[in-house]
Amino acid sequence: MSKALALVIVAMMVVHLIRPLGLPGLRQRRDVWKIAAAALGAIGATVLLSHAN
């Protein structure tokens, strides 16, 4: 699951660099770091939830 999530996030970052997504807070190309920060949190949560057993 984390590999698929990482691929989706990388794809979002590439698309955002080519043409900004236009979502609130993601209106300029330099906002790519926000996607990366959210990705770090999402992957961390995925890892924690999968290893919490």
Short précis:
It contains 2 helices and no strands. By secondary structure, it is mainly α.
Keywords:
single chain; 53 residues; mainly alpha; 0% strand; elongated
Total of domains: 1
Into which percent range does the helicity of residues fall? 55-70%
Q: Runs with pLDDT <50, length 5+?
A: none
What gap, in angstroms, lies between the N and C termini? 16 Å
Number of helical segments?
Answer: 2
Which percent band covers the strand fraction?
under 5%
How confident is the prediction overall: mean pLDDT? 86
Using DSSP, what is the number of strands?
A: 0
Structural class: mainly alpha
Oligomeric state: single chain
Spell the H/E element sequence: HH
Main beta-sheet annotation = none
- Radius of gyration using CA atoms only: 12 Å
Net shape: elongated
